[in-house]
Amino acid sequence: MELFFATLLYILKLKAFWFLVVMVVLITVVQLQLPKWRGAVGERIVQKRLKKLGEEYQAYHDLYVEDAQYGLTQIDHVVVSKYGLHVIETKHYKGWIFGSENQKYWTQVIYKNKQKFYNPIRQNYGHIEALKSHLNLPNLPVCSIIAFSNVVEFKFKEPFRSADIVHYRGLVKAIKQDDRPRLTDNQMNSIINNLDQLADLPKEEKKSIRKAHLQQVRKKYNATPERK
After folding, report:
1. Could you please report the per-residue DSSP string of 28-88?
2. Is 111 left (phi over 0), alpha (psi -120 to 50) or beta?
3. pLDDT tens digits for 147-202?
4. Which whole number is the average pLDDT over 21-26?
5. Which of 33, 105, 128, 157 would be 116's cystine partner, CB 3.0–4.6 Å?
6. Is 227 part of a structural domain of the chain?
7. Membrane spanning segments where (predicted)?
8. Residue 121 in domain
9. How many structural domains comprise the chain?
10. Do 121 and 105 meet the contact criterion of CB atoms below 8 Å apart?
């Protein structure tokens, strides 16, 4: 009888041990993937918002642009219309956001926890310049928009001149406030044809490009993927 209970206890301990191992692995995986999942959620929300713009706007999502000067650049969203281009960088954050136009890093504050992230205005500027270079249109009229999740509270002390900083809910309004035509039909169609080619790449080619871009970002930021 003692042997039976000893064996049973051993089995229970063994099961408990492997249960803890599995839980630790799951928690680690969730922690590693959480920034990526948050980013994906934010981009899906923005995609739904952009559908409300109407037929005169053409939206593109998750574009990879490559050129000699800027290398491989990933752009969250591009909206093309006769009013010009709107290049959108999404940040699915929460908490308070501090920063200014010329600071290299901004700060996210959640209770007593602070975390710095690269100034998204600078980040999107690089995206815009890469896009202009790729399209060979250095004077292309482009508006930079940084879209944060609706739960973020902005703590900015000064207005921004080179970009619009908005919540997701204000994205459509920010785009439609530009109501002066800046592109001819021929210019707009040429840009759309070019971006269509980027958007319609074969699945395997997109996967390869995405992998190359991730390696480029990790190398640039000391093996730390950029938060979304």
Report:
1. HHHHHHHHHHHHHHHHHHHHHHHGGG-TT-EEEEEEEEEETTTEEEEEEEEEEETTEEEEE
2. left
3. 999 999 999 999 999 999 999 999 999 999 988 999 999 999 999 999 999 888 76
4. 47
5. 105
6. no
7. 16-34
8. yes
9. 1
10. no
In a domain, 122, yes or no: yes
Q: Structure tokens of 174?
A: 């920010």
Q: How high is the mean pLDDT of the chain? A: 82
Structural contact between residues 135 and 127, judged by C-beta atoms closer than 8 angstroms = no
The first and second tokens of residue 50, run together, are 């952009």
Which positions ≥6 away from 80 have C-beta within 8 Å?
A: 57, 58, 59, 60, 188, 191, 192, 195
Domain that holds residue 201: 10-220
Return all residues near 32 (Cβ < 8 A) that are at least 6 apart.
Answer: none
Using CA atoms, how far apart are residues 43 and 124, in angstroms rounded to an integer?
15
d(CA 181, CA 35): 38
Q: What are phi and psi of 37, to 5 degrees?
A: -65, -40
- Stated pTM of the model: 0.76
Beta bridge partners, 66, equal 72
For the stretch 143-160, pLDDT in tens is 999 999 999 999 999 999
Sequence-ordered strand ranges (E) for the chain = 58-67, 71-81, 84-91, 95-98, 105-110, 113-118, 142-148, 152-154, 164-167
